[in-house]
Amino acid sequence: MSVDQPNKPDVKDNQQNAESQKDTVERLPLFVRTWLKNPPLLPGESRSDLVEIFGSYELTHAGKAKTNAEYWMVCRATTLTLEIMRYERMKVAIMRLKERPAVESMLRKTHPGAAMADAAAGVQAMCHLDADKYYADPKQKEKSSKDFESAGFGPHAVEGEAFILSLPSLATLESMIASKEKRLRNISIDLEARYLTRAKNRPSS
User: Fold this and answer.
1) What is the CA radius of gyration of the chain?
2) pLDDT tens for residues 80-127?
3) Which residue from 109, 127, 156, 179 has the highest number of Cβ atoms inside 10 Å of its Cβ?
4) Do 73 and 62 contact (CB within 8 A), yes or no?
């Protein structure tokens, strides 16, 4: 009884694929090759994601980039897409960043001494320490959450407070995203129009 052997990669095929990829890269304009070698990425961002996004603009249903101007637009579209994705991640990061200040704010609002005019500094210091306990002790967190709810702030008080504290930064990010989306839309329309025009003008065989 023969046992099927796992398929081994064909060395010749691998070499041909590598050579094909190399040829493809070498056909790119020099500024694109330089840009792809040192892409505008922050720590934690993926170069493979950038390359995939680049490819999605370089080759579409309408055609493929050919000229330096088109490749420049592909690079710009890729950068704008990455920046929009980055800003969307920053919105979540800002909300998380504001969670601790939101907890301290809720602890101050529900502290028995909150209404005392001369106790503000002391209450703030105590609530800072209570926030440490809120994160260190699950039971303390549960108790504080119940206190917030009992005071009339609802079951999602911390999330709501964090959102309120985040609003100025979120508004700025939304404005930046809208600006970049507009620029990306204009570049995409121009790029698609170029591809389609070339396809229409291509001699039929």
Assistant:
1) 28
2) 999 999 999 999 999 999 999 999 999 998 888 766 766 778 888 899
3) 127
4) no
Q: Any idea how long the chain is?
A: 205
CA dist., res. 11 & res. 17, Å (int): 10
Task: Say how far apart CA 175 and CA 179 lie, in whole Å.
Answer: 6
Q: What angle do CA 148, 153, 156 make, to 5 degrees?
A: 85
pLDDT at 2: 47
| Residue 104 near residue 161, CB atoms below 8 Å | no
Residues 71 and 59: their CA atoms lie apart, in Å, by 11
Q: Which long-range contacts (CB under 8 A, 24 or more apart) does 44-51 make?
A: 45/82, 45/86, 49/82, 50/78, 50/82
158, 109 contact by CB (below 8 A) = no
Asked if 28 contacts 70 with a C-beta cutoff of 8 angstroms, the reply is: no
Terminus-to-terminus CA distance in the chain, angstroms? 54
Average pLDDT over residues 171-199: 96
Taking the C-alpha atoms of residue 163 and residue 92, their distance in angstroms, rounded to an integer, is 10
- Bridge partner residues of 59 (DSSP): 64
